[in-house]
Amino acid sequence: MPPSPNAVSAPWSSWPSSSSWPSFFCAGTFARASGALLLALAAFVRPVPEAIAATSDLQPLSVRIVAPPPFGYDESELGRATHQVRLNVTNPNTVAVPLSPLTFRFVPKREGVEYTCTVAPGNIADRWPSTLNPGDTVTAERGITCLTPLPGRYDVDVHARAERGGEDTKEHFVGTFELTIKPSKTPPVPLPWDSRLLVAADATKEIRPKEKSGRLFVGVINASKGDIAATPFRADLHVSQRGKKNAVCADFSVDLPFTRSIPAGHMQSLDVPLQCNFPQEGIYDIDVTVSKGDSRAKIGRYSVRVIVVPVIPIPRPPVYDQQSIAPPVGGQT
Question: Does residue 300 come out as left (phi exceeding 0), alpha (psi in the -120 to 50 range) or beta?
Fold first, then answer.
């Protein structure tokens, strides 16, 4: 099928050799339109019956990838988020095509560094027909949970593999869509002693007065292309209550015992207790600075809401009193 005027031909060098492709799997073209990625790619089809093959020159299936909208960086998850992706597979031929269900894999990349996406369990409910009729479309929807710990643009490569045994089950590249993570008020900050690593944090959102159950969550992100051995450092904390001038508790430090090697595009996280007795209801701000030796960097201010959760009484069920509802004796009222 010739490429459309606005399409960009996929270079042959980026595709497997023709000898390794399944029947009627051939290099395609793609174009971006209306926020979706349009692909003309090889049909992941089962071996085509001779009657069909003899009566028609099959064209590749067309695939439209509907990318998720831009998403704000989620501090509470240290950048981990789930996105919905839809893939519409259409048969442009004038004859039906035998079809195999597909398994998809998603690989996000940012500035040449590969991160991770996994398909959320329990959300695959495709109804793949055994045959895709002319002009018909089958839709695959996937919830992908991605570790995108840094704001910015990620290019997500999509790969597909036929599921049915006895066929070509090799994985094939389908296309790429953009995933944008919008920055937050407290984005990750490079560590001053190793700019290849960035640090992000968040704190418990709500606790009760005078409880010490609050936690500080810290993640170290490897934004380089190689593994890096993490080393311990400290977090210095200052706690204040909004609307009050005096500090709630004395400034304190907590050790962050990062020790393991962090692979490229991965994050290592841990949590430590907030060593402060929040005395009363209100909103408290926690200023966090990380330090190692003489190097220091402020990473942000995080809010904790201290609230009294009222105890709601549970009403007792009515007592069934036989005497109060018994009919009057002798029919008298």
Answer: left
Cα–Cα distance, 319 to 315 (Å, whole number): 12
CB atoms within 10 A of CB 294: 7
Instruction: Report the alpha-carbon distance of residue 286 to residue 293 in Å, rounded.
Output: 22
**Strands, sheet with 113-114, edge to edge from the N-terminal-most edge strand:** 71-72, 172-182, 152-162, 102-110, 113-114
pLDDT digits (tens, 9 = 90+) for 220-246: 999 999 999 999 999 999 999 998 887
Region for residue 163 given its phi and psi (left: phi exceeds 0; alpha: psi -120 to 50; beta: otherwise)? alpha
**CA terminus-to-terminus distance, the chain:** 92
In whole angstroms, give the CA distance from residue 125 to residue 244.
53
DSSP element (H, E) containing 324: helix 322-325
Tell how far CA 306 is from the center of its chain.
30
Map tokens 């018909």 to a residue: 136
